[in-house]
Specification:
It contains twelve helices and no strands. The protein is an all-alpha fold. It has one domain. Helix 2 crosses helix 10, helix 4 crosses helix 5 and helix 4 packs across helix 6.
Amino acid sequence: MSFFDRMSNGWALGMTSLKTIWENKKLLVFPALSGIALVAVCLSFFGGAFAIFGRDFEAFFNRLEETNEILLYAILFAFYLVSYFIIVFFNVALVHCARLIFAGQEATIKEGLNYSGSRIVSIGSWAILAATVGVILKFLEDRLGWLGQIVIGIIGMVWSIATFFVVPILAYEDLGPIDALKRSGAMMKEKWGESIGANFSFGVFYLLGYFFIVIAAIALFFVHPILAIVSAVLAALLLHTVVSASKTVFIAATYNHMTDKPAGRFDDDQMLDSLFLVK
């Protein structure tokens, strides 16, 4: 199968993910809750610091960076830890609801959240590992300058590939964070192919979405600037929520397919096999 055929299949799988979300709009609640929780975390960290130090907020962190880097990285670790925990927690809930839908069962928000709660130890353990990696990468970036940014970019790309299946693995396999990482990497090696096709489709969804958002914002700007800004922000948040949920559904379907579990309409499309090449 040619590269363009695989890109076409990737696009079809992306559209299938969107159709799944369209037919099960309740799944959008999970990335929405995740986003709200992340905003709350940011406000807690930075808003709390600003409330304590006021106008000296920036100066305090500058002094902290110069005099006590360990404390600064500890704060960063805590921020990463909470953020990763929130993201994975709601993604596990979404993956579980997607699996229920793939199997033809009824899925509820409560059921998804309850299931994530039952996997809280695995989620927390992974958040610790991810936060540790994040702090190490930040440390290297601070020390290596522009070279560090290149290194971080390469490591980040490898990390995203290696962790592709981590969320469903955390959801359904009793593995520690290191073993979950190894398992995810092994699954990618076992059936690695042009999954870039599907990822490319989600990137195109973002580009098309932002293109229309900008066009609409420009038109609304002549009506009222504030209306244009508010509408653009809300539309961007909705776009991110929809595409993020669709991508998670795609990951869930791919994992189910590779572990011989129902993958819903993805099984009907019979494209997952062509997306991954057995090595």
